[in-house]
Amino acid sequence: MDLRLVEIFCYVYQEMSFSRAAERLGLTQPTISGHIKTLEQRIDTRLFDRLGREIAPTRAGELLYVYAEQIVELKRAAAEAMNRFLSRLEGRLVLGASTIPGEYLMPARIARFRDSYPNIEISMVIHDTRQVVAGVRKGEIDLGFVGAKLPYPTLSYEPFARDRVVLVVPAGPEWAFDSISLAELRNRPLLVREEGSGTRMMLERALSDSGLGLGDFHIVAELGSTTAIKEAVKTQLGAAFVSSLSVESDLRGGLLRKIEVQGLEPIDRSIFTVINNRRASSPLREAFLEFLADSRPRPAALAS
Predict the structure, then answer these.
(1) How far is the CA of 141 from the CAs of 87, 116, 194, 220, 275, in angstroms?
(2) Rg (CA), the chain
(3) How many Å apart are CA 292 and CA 288, to the nearest integer?
(4) Which of 83, 123, 126, 279 is the most exposed place for a label (fewest CB within 10 A)?
(5) CATH number of 89-161+270-301, picked from 3.90.79.10, 3.40.50.150, 3.40.190.10, 3.40.50.300
(6) How many CB atoms sit inside 10 A of residue 232's CB?
(7) Domain 162-269 class, CATH top level
(8) Tens digits of per-residue pLDDT, 64-87?
(9) DSSP letter at 164?
């Protein structure tokens, strides 16, 4: 089998679309369709069922993808390993991060890494934890940074940083107290992150330990980013549980206040790196992990 045809097959399988695969590869849809047809002729079996505008892998296609994915990864890893051996480490590293590490931890680290490895292109996407983990599982993301573990046997998680989920309230007379009970908080307006958010998953777990769920609270809005949550709190819409990393400057500037919640254990969490163990180890990925290990801040500096 021609290696280029195997690579194109992987793109089509991942996208489940000839047109989307063509967009990723910068080719035309007829060209992609022709390459897949050539591959099917060479192995004498159909790899995809054409269902109008949709396609679905045959059992042969599913079997081939298990090995094709590894072949493509080994090709990339071999090229990167040779570049590293020859002291010319270069290429493209795709990172994925949930909101907190993506917005508050990774940008400065990426900048410092680029100072040491100027020939490595870094691309980072920011999604919620579930989407980042899904990207790592599919091989679309080389290395992920998330605030919660989702159990999949092919993935491994390593602690990267520490964080604490805290309750923040508007700066004003309506919230002019230092602590609140869970019972009283249930009657106050509360803002929450969307489902799939690591912060929300940690909050739900802590509430469950206290015999409660989010359905027991007066939820006034569900927002898709920490920035949106903070801005809504500032407008007096309600209180919110957020990452302490995300509100350090807001607390110092008096734009928000942090109050304790009586009856709720502190919600401490790790920020994890997540790796797909089925994928061949990439020299670019290993270089980035080594850099992070050498520049890792002390946990105390991250908790509040």
Answers:
(1) 24, 22, 22, 34, 9
(2) 23
(3) 6
(4) 123
(5) 3.40.190.10
(6) 18
(7) alpha beta
(8) 999 998 898 888 888 877 876 766
(9) E
